[in-house]
Amino acid sequence: MVFKLVYMLLDWSVGFYSLASSLSSKTALLDSSIGFNCPFDALMVFQSMKLVNQNPNSITLVSLLSACTRLLNICIGTSIHSHVIVNNIKLDVALGTALLEMYSKCGSIEVALQVFSSLEEKNLQSWTIMISGVADHGRGEDAISLFTQMEENGLKPDSLSFSGILSACSHLGLVEEGKRYFDQMVNTNGIKPTMEHYGCMIDMLGRAGMIEEAYRVIKSMPMEPNSVILRNFIGSSKNRGEVVCLDENLRKLLLQIEPDLGANYVLAACVSSVSENWNDVASLRDAMKGRRLKKAPGCSWVEVNSASSGEIIQPAVG
């Protein structure tokens, strides 16, 4: 019964989107679907185009690739790439950038690099997406190389470009380089650091065991640190066995920002155990029980031959 209902809804969706007869109307529908964060609807528009043998143009394909990126659907994304090749559609900067972003976000970084290299024209967005892509895949040296090439090509890095290169420095443990890029961003390029930039710096310093310096960065922030920054910093303190002077206040701030996340209480309790503050540990565990909170298990999700497979990793909470 459930599957029958799903198929009925799919048939209705395709029929509904087929009412928009012109290519421009369907492109507008695609853009609206993406704008309202409904990528599945965008693919339904594409399906309706195929039913009436209506070939999408370059603008339409960019929207379709954006939908594939949000859904992490590399199968349809690859089909769109094949359509581009078979129909000799020119890979302009917009289409090429959308294509390399889809491959990068879906895990095919080598194909993304091939698409990037094949582009005759690259804009700042193309470079930034590629830098962030290789950085996210742990290829920090490639990210630094691309960043240098981008500057040599006369393009001025923006806020997103610096986020990518700072993330790369963090993963590679290149502390001095990361500091240099941060200084360049602020003092040379005149870019005001965002929460993400500060997060990259704190993560980089924490990974390197420079806890006191990471703490100074937190204190220098013009805004209150978010939960991600606090978790990274407190986690680094725990791993290094260091509890800095105002760590108690940071733990309280974390629990204040996200009071209903069990992992925060577990992390705070672990830090208290490092300083042998057992009363605090007991209090945090009681607070978890009072709120009926549990630490969610870690999980991983991969796609093999178009089939998804998940693995749950149970947390060790002693």
From TrEMBL:
* Keywords attached to this entry: Repeat, Signal
**Signal peptide bounds:** 1-22
UniProt-recorded Gene Ontology molecular function terms? RNA binding
One BP annotation, GO = RNA modification
The residue intervals holding the PPR repeats read 123-157, 158-193
User: Which InterPro entries does its entry note?
Assistant: E_motif, PPR_At4g14850-like_plant, PPR_rpt, TPR-like_helical_dom_sf
Q: Does the keyword NAD apply?
A: no
Give the top-rank taxon of the lineage listed in the UniProt record for this protein: Eukaryota
Q: Which Pfam families match?
A: E_motif, PPR_1, PPR_2
Query: PANTHER family annotated for this entry?
Result: PENTATRICOPEPTIDE REPEAT-CONTAINING PROTEIN, TETRATRICOPEPTIDE-LIKE HELICAL DOMAIN SUPERFAMILY
* Protein's recorded name: Pentatricopeptide repeat-containing protein
